[in-house]
Amino acid sequence: MDKMDLIKELSQKNEKKIIFFVIDGLGGITYPEKGKTELEAAITPNLDKLAQESLCGLSVPISYGITPGSGPSHLSLFGYDPLKHDIGRGVLEALGLGLTMTKNDLAARANFATLDYEKNIVVDRRAGRPATEKTVELCKFLQEKIPNIGDVEIIIKPGKGHRFVVLFRGEGLGEKIYDNDPQKDGHEPHTIREHSPDNESKKTSHIVNQFIDKAMSLIKDNGAMNYVLVRGFSKYPAIPSMKEAYKLTPAAIAVYPMYKGLAQLVGMDILKVPGETLSDEIALLKKEYNNYDFFYVHSKETDAFGEDGNFEGKVNKLNEIDKIIPELLSLDPDVLVITGDHSTPAVIKGHSWHPVPLLLRSKYKVLNTGVKRFTEQECLKGYLGIFSAQDVMPLAMANTFKLAKYGA
Amino acid sequence: MDKMDLIKELSQKNEKKIIFFVIDGLGGITYPEKGKTELEAAITPNLDKLAQESLCGLSVPISYGITPGSGPSHLSLFGYDPLKHDIGRGVLEALGLGLTMTKNDLAARANFATLDYEKNIVVDRRAGRPATEKTVELCKFLQEKIPNIGDVEIIIKPGKGHRFVVLFRGEGLGEKIYDNDPQKDGHEPHTIREHSPDNESKKTSHIVNQFIDKAMSLIKDNGAMNYVLVRGFSKYPAIPSMKEAYKLTPAAIAVYPMYKGLAQLVGMDILKVPGETLSDEIALLKKEYNNYDFFYVHSKETDAFGEDGNFEGKVNKLNEIDKIIPELLSLDPDVLVITGDHSTPAVIKGHSWHPVPLLLRSKYKVLNTGVKRFTEQECLKGYLGIFSAQDVMPLAMANTFKLAKYGA
Predict the structure, then answer these.
(1) To the nearest whole angstrom, how far is the Cα of B36 from the nearest Cα of chain A?
(2) Per-residue model confidence as pLDDT tens digits over B88-100
(3) Distance from CA of A73 to the nearest CA of B (A)
(4) Nearest CA in chain A to B382
(5) Which among A259, A282, A403 has a CA at the least distance from the CA of A341?
(6) ipTM of the complex, rounded to two decimals
(7) Which chain B residue has its CA at the smallest distance from A81's CA?
């Protein structure tokens, strides 16, 4: 029996409510010029007071030294073993765009690009960054002209800017194929090839090459948007839903496609946010509060500032987020978890392996460990210590008595 | 996918350099008469300053409560699961003596002993501690007289003092056999027996008994060195090299055979130290610094003093080691790890299960956790907390950006 089996066996339904507020890329490390982390530099009286009243710790998304993408790190937070459930980027993107996937589907991320047809060189991998409307229009055209390749149904859905998603729906498709993206402008696109000798992957590389060829013949005179790049091929994974695993009725409140996709993958209802700000998300949370017993609320911008190496931007965003905390508290959830999916230190300009500050506010305060602020260093002093992100869900469930006793 | 598979998938080559400085048996516990651990009693201004600037923690070699031998504890430090890769003492000894092993080899540690042939009693398990030259000579004689037993080739290599190694090279040998060592002087030697009914182990017990009988008939009149004890039977294990697993070009700088053997087992180049002191080792490190991207530097004496229960001896050795730290720092490695393979508290007079102080100095300082000294107690306050020694390699790799992001 693995841990998920145990949780599944012990989980029980009740009326208590859990909110996971995930501040993307929350964790930081000391920024040399400032001598502080982003959280240390931020002015966060509400988060600090909350940390004083909560169980605090630092959560390890995957394991020491491993820098996670958003997919695996969210799965961990939702209590799943990310090494067991490997979720492809194509699947995440497809779900994020609202596509419903079946077990016969292979998803791929795609985008329009500019090909120099004479030299066979990709001159702009983003097709001059077209407006979303242009991509919507061209996707519609391609969808009409390429409803299928042989026995494989083709489903095309536009995303933002130059991006779209292609679902290949059919029997016997495999995901072990390389993409055609040369990764850099000025290089030849690749022919799709499988990297595994199985028949499924062979069939798929054949189908995808045909798809690219058909698309080329249809759009080659369409200015900058005259070529397609497809990558991130992935099949829909078998993963138990949070309803099955935890007997929860979970909802996701997120703006960015990938996070909605992830939430859908684990069986959350995706609530439509009437806007793009955190305030819009919190308003929706309040409105839907009686309809669910688990809420995942996602805030993206901190991660983006971290990726840009913008220390001040991330600090300011944290200052803003702090102001909204009283609204979360006004709902008085039985458990409120505030953490990140991973660290994105401005000094590293990307995701990193560093453990992430976490607070879990429960009706059952355990100890007063003297944590003063919601920072990396103060959370290290907390009751939870450094622990696996996969243990956050069980802790939240326990603190709402949603887990029965194990054994007599 | 297990963690090693993950690391293997994510590892990437770059120019950054990692040094692991392993102070054998480093960790201690409070020595009652002194009220301090060895590290607390030592005067270590350089290590203390380094601890203040580093990530600190206590590493658990195997798991809570488990006292490791040097083999498993080093495997952990090198990132391998020591429960998955069980390395026999015979193999370590053979590699340490510079023998190259094949997959058909069974290694055994051996030594000359004194048998009272009339009473069939081992009267001195160490044959009066002969000079190494005598063992060299007698091994040469035995090797000439016993080139093989049936289809099994015999390879004999002298070690220090009364010790030597026997390799049994042939098809179908098994390692599940007991030894002939009575463990105490004044007892009868055992006949070699298998403790598993497999044919390989049966064949082997038969071969080894013949080897002992032949040796007896050849040396029975050779004074104190008139008998052989063989033990620690072990086959060469299949273990991925650090080159495969981490894409590193690793080198080992160690004086004692076992540590060189261990390093060779995980695919390190064994550099020949021109002397026996830590200064000799550091001089070699400087000379070879441009030729490798990972260095394992081993210092043995602290462990020996701990084993002897010599608190002051271990403290003095730590004082000496501290003086050499500036030389390590002068190389300015991208990551410098200083730790032990296990604890050897003088009060316990042997290896122990206690977590081992560790510092990891990275270009990416995380936080100022207020660690003041390189001691057990201060490391406990550190950012790494109490963590598995198997996570040291991934952390070192992460801090040198030798691990790609996991998932999208």
Answers:
(1) 24
(2) 888 988 887 878 8
(3) 9
(4) A380
(5) A259
(6) 0.82
(7) B1
